[in-house]
Design goal:
Radius of gyration: 17 Å
Distance between the termini: 7 Å
CATH superfamily: Endonuclease/exonuclease/phosphatase
CATH class: Alpha Beta
CATH architecture: 4-Layer Sandwich
Strand order of the largest sheet: 3-4-2-1-14-13
Helix content: 25-40%
Largest sheet: 6 strands, mixed
């Protein structure tokens, strides 16, 4: 079962940038999307040219903002929006697909914002997300994927010293939030397979950052430790264009 995750930075925009060809290249059974920037009906309409997938969407109350979606060849047992906490559930940032043997949680974690204005909220989100995943794990093993909006280690960011505790996505508060999730029984699947490799999944549109590979690894698959023996392959596909992020993913032998 091949799983992929991609922050598309607008589903309607990426559909104009060869999305169907990119999807074919990814050859995935399930694709989790973040930052769809569309209401549920608009997501379904935008994806109408895509064949062979069931489409599920969780949009923000605010139009044109945030949002998550899941495309799955196999119809999930159940699909659950949000985490059940009102202050978090207006932005469409979580969509969970339940399969026979695991939960797949697709998330678009809040950005801490310019001047870290949303860092306190982000800290609360991370703590509540850790509890949400812990509760799910009591029923079935969980795989968490998506744009987690944090570089966990210095190797995950091109310019660590210049950004540490100054830029959203590389503060100790955010690093600690991800560490807490991992400490509850998860493995960063790509880093586990590539402990010393420098590879990024997001680049600023400014200054030719992608061409120069001045990037950040913000996109992850965190796998319940009990499922790690099923992970056969992991990937970050820098060759797929259309967004400021690229797809990441893994293959499970189930």
């Amino acid at each position: 079962m091949r799983l992929a995750s991609w922050n598309v930075n607008g589903i309607r925009a990426v559909m104009k940038k060869d999305f169907t060809e990119s999807l074919s290249k990814l050859n995935c059974d399930v694709l989790c999307l973040q930052e769809t920037k569309a209401q549920d009906d608009q997501v379904v309409e935008a994806l109408e040219p895509v064949n062979g997938y069931h489409v599920f969407s969780n949009s923000a109350v605010r139009k044109g903002y945030s949002g998550t979606a899941i495309l799955s060849k196999e119809k999930p047992v159940n699909v659950l929006p949000d985490m059940g906490i009102a202050e978090h559930d207006e932005e469409g940032r979580i969509l969970t697909a339940e399969f026979d043997t695991f939960y797949l949680v697709n998330t678009y974690v809040p950005n801490s914002g310019n001047n870290l204005v949303r860092l306190d909220y982000r800290k609360k989100w991370d703590a509540d997300m850790a509890d949400y995943l812990t509760d799910l794990n009591k029923h079935k093993p969980v795989i968490l994927c998506g744009d987690l909006n944090v570089c966990h280690q210095a190797i995950d960011i091109a310019r660590p010293e210049a950004n540490y505790n100054k830029s959203a996505g590389y503060t100790q508060t955010e690093i600690d939030g991800l560490s807490e999730i991992i400490n509850r029984g998860f493995t960063d699947s790509w880093r586990n397979a590539h402990p010393d490799e420098v590879k990024y999944s997001w680049w600023s549109y400014r200054g030719g950052a992608r061409q120069k590979n001045i990037g950040w690894r913000l996109d992850y698959f965190l796998v319940n430790n009990d499922l790690m023996n099923k992970v056969q392959d992991t990937f970050i596909d820098n060759d797929v264009l259309g967004s400021d992020h690229c797809p990441v993913g893994l293959t499970l032998g189930l």
